[in-house]
Amino acid sequence: MQNCTDITEIYPEGMKAYLINGAQKTGWLPVDYNMASLRNVTLTQSIYSRTPRFDSNFDILSVTGFISLIKPSSTWLNVEHDIFYREHGLNMTNYILSIQKLGSVKYISSPELGFLQSLSGGINREVNLVFCFLDKALSDPSTNKTYNYMLSNLTFIKTIASGIMVPKNYIWPVTSDNYIQLHTQIVQEAHNAGLEIYASDFSNDGIFPYNYSYDPLGEYLSFVSDGGFSVDGVLTDFPLTASEAIGNPLIISHNGGSGDYPGCTDLAYENAVRDGADVIDCSIQMTKDGIPICMSSIDLLATTDVQQSKFCSLLSVIPEIQSKKGIFTFNLTWDDINILRPKISSPLSDYNAAFMAASLGFDVVDLVTTALSHAGYNNPTTTNKEVMIQSRHSAVLVKLKHQKTQYKLVYTLPLNIEDASDSSVAEMNKFAEAVMKSVFVESSGFIVRKTNLVKELQSAGRLAVYAQMKQRWKSITTFFSVNSCTGLGDGKPRSMKAVEIGGLVQTLQDKARRPARAPALVLKPSDVVEPPLPAAAAAAAAVPKTTGYSSPRSDAPPPAAAVTAISSTGILLGMVWVSLLI
């Protein structure tokens, strides 16, 4: 119990050693305590990568106490060590038979086939008995047969149980370098023997085979009608993800499939298209010879092996861009960059249109629109390829608007904004057709509340886009929205109700909560309106050490005085293969 409670603090001298299934185990085991002695023991998180803020919030519940409190329509009970309990005078068979009268117990599972056999004569017929397979090399202590051997005796298992549960790697084996292999035939074999089959060991924060691109939903779907088979259920730490039905949102890639491959490479873009992205993006940077290229960062140190190349002597600090040394895209020609090798990089990027115009002589907006024109995207006949240009500063979009561009202009709202005044919305209406902003406010890994922006912007006829969702980031709490399965009537599948926005953090005890967040910022017209981009100066022989612009901290909203210093060329978004245009 030391793995999931604070019992070591309540009974520090309680550690004992026992022989369990032939192996020596040391710890605090429940056979040494009755329920009265456990009243002061509370539950803790047993997986340390998950939040500890619910530790010591909840007491240990008995089975009958759980059923009385929760009143579930269906309960699954798992008995892990029947033989061990029998050795210590505890009869699990009699206990399970005594509580079946509570009515909600629908499933009984155990890795000991002998225990399930002891129930089969007295258990209600509507209760399903499920035999759990463990590691193939281990043995069932009730039969002294390995679980690998038991796999070849499914017809015998059927005489005792109605189903089996197997670790998910029994179905989709995983190689030592974390890629899935061809699926086994165990699902078909179980169904042929008349057994239901359930897969276990699912969690959203576990180690995913690379084939799933860090997408927990993709993993679940591979066990349902993928390869011509479907399991009958899954055992998961995150039932909401497994139970939800997915709608049809617009999916925009971020530097292509940059979670799997180096961003803005052909492999990343091909992967994004293959995975079903609706829109392919291109973060535009400029080369020394004035060519706009797709690169997730202006600093080549973050995205390539330039530090190991002949260009390593070009390291310099440019305060207008970043405080640390870098080798920047405008230091090298396109031919130079083309010989570098890409690498996986941070997903965070900054854009510097004003700096490029004032210091390097590049009018990035004109160069981008020219590249789009040369690629044929201003051709009215190209109706199946929509282009969107995104910027976090209005000066870029205003200039594009004045050029009467036919591309959709997307404005990224400043950081920490949760509300927008009517006058600021009116200003955005002058130059943008859509906005990008997170829908939820987060604190310490919990969703605290939903902003008012979606309602306000949609009422003004705008499209709200949820920005940059990354499954690998622990800060992203929820990935998918729920489809109500309307139209299925009484045939819709059983599902789990989503936690209400801000509901989870309310269950924390006061001592576990972080200090309250600062008041939400309301977007004002002064936050939106910016001076025009500076005219492109003659290209300098060398980048000046200072240009009169200053960059704010990346984690703070840009001050008004520094707006033009970090104006963005935007992210170029185009349907399907627009990434190939540059």
TrEMBL record:
Q: Which Gene3D superfamilies match?
A: Phosphatidylinositol (PI) phosphodiesterase
What domain of life does the UniProt record list for this protein's source? Eukaryota
Tell me the ranges covered by the GP-PDE domain, including all copies.
1-246, 249-582
Entry's InterPro entries?
Answer: GP_PDE_dom, PLC-like_Pdiesterase_TIM-brl
Write the record's keywords in alphabetical order, separated by commas.
Answer: Glycerol metabolism, Hydrolase, Membrane, Signal, Transmembrane, Transmembrane helix
Question: What is one GO biological process annotated to this record?
Answer: glycerol metabolic process
This enzyme catalyses:
a sn-glycero-3-phosphodiester + H2O = an alcohol + sn-glycerol 3-phosphate + H(+)
What's the top EC group for this one?
hydrolase
**Could you say which EC number(s) this protein's record lists?**
3.1.4.46
Q: Any idea what this protein is called? A: glycerophosphodiester phosphodiesterase
